[in-house]
């Protein structure tokens, strides 16, 4: 056998046929001169045959490209499909190269033999190769492979057109809308599924490959906005997170058909005076307040909560949508409601006008905030007035005129709220004093206003919502109604929240506090200074509040409870995941618009700031008035709490980046 291999020879290099000049056999290896000019030992199993044509070693060095070209030329004429058809009826299914040559060629040469092997070794359709033997594939296999190859060819042609078009869309002007050709609509639809359903697809993989290092979801949203699939008015952070800002036509139609049954409700009547206190722009009103004056200096305070359960049945289509959304989302760019606007801002919202279903919590209090009695009932309420925090603060401070009855009610509510807060503080309640900013955007221009830190009307509304939630939690606990309680263990250290906000003391106080959590077991809420606490008071805005409302109403009506403890825990788990996503979106959106505010109107201006942490290569500082924390590149490690004056040099909202310069250290 070893004598067969000498001179010009063909050998295999993977699936490639190569030419070599065999110089001799040494230790069961063919010592061979190859095309690169090197001499290597080839395994004998890789050497196919030696050519009958006698050429010298020098001829091989000079002419091997021509030999290879001749083989390639002959290989190009080989029709493997025809060979496969010739062999398909043969009983034998495995053939040697020589046998295949005998079938295919009427006259054979070494170059034809090499050409056939070259084609066979690279074939994936008709034959399977193992060393120098070839197995013929059956018809079903061949048809499947040919179909797959045709599909791949068409896909490559499609992508060759798609790539430049996608690139042109991404490079188009922000204000333009690119029409989607019919042949690319599937691609665009799949990118929509990436955003809304978080489904990967050929489209998402193609775009990911096309854009390189850019974030995939960010580019997909940009693409969908530029092709008109997503409104350019949508908050980008919301869309990137896959949260739909709108509702389907089916859900909108369902909301239009909703109505409630007033049977069994206490109709409070048109003369019952009650009012809401919210921001001027609020349209999804969950709660209203009322004051009744009793004998012996007692006050019956009504906290009336929109009864969303009167409209939305458990497991209905709208209910499942709300469960998925988990909460309404409040962003600088607008509100994304948990329910369609027809319900959230009209039918269920406690706005003045027509009678609305409510769940009314009553607390009879003394003038110093002592609780004498409580009562909960299903009611029918007609709201008298929609008031704003700004207006109510003005009335309470004597800066706004008001009807005598309203002023009296507000004074009573404010005084009682002060007493209730003091009682909770005596039990360890913590009052947070971090400033809040309201971000408004008009025609792309950002404005920042600080929410009044000591707003009396905000404090009184918050306090009576806390009272209602505490009463609801006690009612569930005392009547053994399965519920989700918000609990917080007492801190191991004393929590010292300063009266005047400073970021360092605030951070230290927060770090001392243990995290609150939801549980089916009633227990203390240390941060609120309460024996038990749940959340009922925002059923338009929070799905967990709607669940608690359903539980309580079912008990009041003597019906079977709506949820078991296991069901509550299952929905809680889903909601917590969603709420985490929502918090991230809100933080990202707020930060983006704060950075945009700096970019639009504060470049070159100075801010007072406080060092709150040390970072690699710099300091983390909080800007006064914005509670925005930014990196300041500074080599010197200043003490935490050091007061500085910094200048805004450069801002990139897309990257959440601002370049600051240190103007002065104020504490030196």
TrEMBL record:
The keyword Translocase does not apply. Residues 265-558 form the RNB domain. GO terms for cellular component: P-body. Signal peptide: none annotated. Residues 396-423 form a coiled coil. The keyword Coiled coil applies. Transmembrane segments: none annotated. GO terms for biological process: mRNA catabolic process. This is Exoribonuclease, VacB/RNB family protein. It comes from Lentisphaera araneosa HTCC2155.
């Amino acid at each position: 056998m070893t004598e067969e291999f000498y001179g010009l020879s063909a050998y295999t290099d993977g699936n490639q046929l190569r030419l070599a000049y065999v110089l001799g056999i040494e230790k069961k290896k063919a010592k061979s001169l190859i095309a690169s000019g090197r001499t290597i030992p080839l395994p004998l199993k890789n050497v196919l045959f030696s050519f009958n044509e006698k050429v010298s070693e020098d001829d091989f060095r000079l002419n091997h490209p021509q030999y290879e070209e001749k083989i390639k030329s002959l290989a190009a004429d080989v029709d493997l499909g025809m060979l496969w058809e010739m062999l398909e009826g043969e009983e034998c299914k495995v053939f040697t190269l020589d046998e295949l040559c005998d079938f295919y060629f009427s006259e054979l040469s070494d170059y034809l033999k090499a050409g056939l092997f070259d084609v066979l070794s690279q074939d994936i359709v008709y034959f399977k190769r193992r060393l120098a033997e070839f197995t013929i594939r059956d018809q079903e296999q061949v048809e499947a492979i040919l179909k797959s190859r045709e599909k791949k060819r068409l896909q490559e042609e499609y992508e060759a057109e798609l790539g430049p078009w996608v690139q042109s869309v991404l490079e188009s002007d922000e204000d333009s809308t690119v029409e989607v050709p019919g042949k690319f609509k599937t691609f665009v639809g799949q990118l929509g599924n990436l955003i809304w359903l978080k489904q990967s697809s050929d489209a998402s993989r193609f775009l990911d490959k096309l854009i390189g290092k850019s974030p995939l979801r960010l580019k997909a949203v940009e693409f969908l906005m530029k092709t008109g699939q997503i409104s350019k008015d949508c908050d980008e952070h919301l869309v990137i997170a896959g949260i739909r800002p709108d509702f389907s036509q089916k859900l909108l139609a369902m909301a239009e058909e909703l109505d409630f049954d007033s049977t069994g409700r206490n109709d409070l009547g048109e003369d019952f005076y009650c009012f809401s206190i919210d921001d001027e722009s609020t349209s999804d009103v969950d709660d209203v307040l009322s004051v009744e004056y009793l004998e012996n200096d007692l006050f019956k305070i009504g906290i009336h909560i929109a009864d969303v359960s009167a409209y939305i049945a458990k497991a209905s289509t709208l209910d499942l949508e709300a469960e998925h959304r988990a909460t309404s989302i409040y962003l600088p760019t607008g509100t994304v409601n948990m329910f369609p606007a027809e319900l959230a801002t009209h039918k269920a919202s406690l706005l003045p006008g027509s009678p609305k279903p409510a769940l009314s919590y009553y607390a009879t209090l003394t003038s110093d905030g002592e609780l004498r009695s409580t009562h909960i009932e299903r009611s029918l309420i007609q709201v008298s007035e929609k008031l704003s925090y700004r207006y109510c603060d003005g009335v309470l401070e004597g800066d706004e005129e008001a009807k005598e009855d309203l002023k009296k009610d507000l004074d009573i509510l404010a005084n009682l709220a002060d007493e209730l807060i003091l009682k909770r503080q005596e039990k360890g309640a913590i009052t947070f004093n971090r400033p809040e900013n309201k971000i408004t955007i008009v025609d792309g221009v950002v404005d920042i206003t600080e929410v009044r830190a000591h707003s009396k009307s905000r404090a009184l509304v918050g306090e009576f919502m806390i009272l209602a939630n505490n009463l609801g939690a006690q009612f569930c606990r005392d009547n053994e109604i399965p519920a989700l309680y918000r609990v917080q263990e007492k801190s191991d250290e004393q929590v010292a929240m300063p009266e005047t906000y400073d970021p360092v003391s605030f951070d230290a106080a927060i770090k001392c506090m243990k995290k609150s959590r939801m549980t089916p077991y009633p227990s203390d809420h240390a941060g609120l200074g309460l024996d038990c606490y749940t959340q009922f008071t925002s059923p338009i805005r929070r799905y967990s509040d709607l669940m608690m409302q359903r539980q309580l109403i079912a008990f009041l009506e003597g019906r079977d409870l709506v949820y078991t403890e296991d069901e509550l825990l299952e929905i809680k788990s889903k909601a917590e995941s969603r709420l985490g996503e929502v918090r991230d979106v809100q933080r990202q959106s707020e930060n983006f618009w704060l950075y945009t505010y700096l970019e639009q109107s504060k470049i070159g201006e100075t801010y007072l700031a406080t060092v709150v942490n040390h970072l690699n290569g710099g300091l983390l500082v909080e800007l006064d008035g914005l509670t925005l924390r930014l990196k300041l590149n500074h080599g010197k490690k200043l003490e935490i709490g050091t007061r500085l004056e910094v200048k805004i040099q450069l801002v990139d909202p897309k990257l959440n980046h601002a370049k600051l310069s240190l103007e002065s250290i104020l504490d030196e």
